[in-house]
Amino acid sequence: MKTIAIISQKGGAGKTTLSVHLATAAALSGHSAAIIDLDPQGTAASWGDRRQADAPEVVSGQAARLGVLIEAAQYGADLLILDTAPNADQTALRAAQAADLVLIPCRAATFDLEAIQATLTLAELAKKPSYVVLNAIPPRSGIGREAAEGLTAQGARVAPAMLSQRAAFTHGVIDGRTAQEFEPDGKAAEEIEALYTWLCGIVGMSKSGQARRAA
Q: How far apart (Å, rounded) are the C-alpha atoms in residues 199 and 68?
């Protein structure tokens, strides 16, 4: 099982959007995927309640039970996503320590870019590799590229696949779907597919799988 922690100190960075889309991409590719929602706001869990499909499974959890929840997931999941609250606290640190990889969603705005340093430091404390995922980039602009260059110059690693500000990301989740399901042939789905493919390569997971059930 591969475990990905989605962490960002900044609210509105797109943690839950990234979590549900990557988990769904894995599920649509034949993997057994699950999300542990560690955010007290429970946004991912609410999305899971609205979702008609069985996968990915979404579980609401607390930091104190993270170890137990991860151990239970190992019996049935190929990919586990940890969706954290918008702060770099002990819960986020525990999630980073339990993960194989930390993804840091970030908008290409000055305040957002300045706020990611705490999360980068947290990943370093956890001794886990981390990548910034630029999110909500205005389409047909050079802002994403400029932000990526600036982050790289500061020593951060940036995922080559970026997510643009597209309506499908917003409309798709209203009834528990994702951009891939809302508009399968759209640009948003294409961007998620590129990000998912890159993620599989980074963590050493096959892009396609055969979903398995817990024993």
A: 25
Interval 48-104: pLDDT, tens:
999 999 999 999 998 888 999 999 998 889 999 999 988 768 889 999 999 999 999
The answer to whether 163 and 191 are in contact (CB under 8 A) is yes
> What are the Cα distances from residue 20, in Å, to 66, 112, 187?
19, 21, 17
Residue 211 falls inside a structural domain: no
How crowded is the C-beta side of 28, counted as CA atoms within 13 Å?
17
pLDDT at 135: 96
Q: Which two tokens stand for residue 139?
A: 């389409």
Interatomic CA distance for residues 55 and 213, integer angstroms: 11
Q: Is residue 213 part of a domain?
A: no
**Residue located via tokens 């946004």:** 43
Q: Does 208 reside within a domain? A: no
- Measuring CA to CA, which residue among 39, 41, 69, 68 is closest to residue 57? 69
Between the CA of residue 100 and those of 80, 146, 154, what are the distances in Å? 10, 28, 23
Whichever domain contains 44, its CATH number is: 3.40.50.300
Q: Give residue 171's Cα distance to chain centre.
A: 18
CA-to-CA dists, residue 133 to 142, 160, 210, 215, angstroms: 16, 8, 27, 35
- Contact of 29 with 126, CB cutoff 8 Å: no
Residue 154 has pLDDT above 80, yes or no: yes
For the chain, the domain total comes to: 1
pLDDT, mean over the chain: 93
- Is 180 within a domain? yes
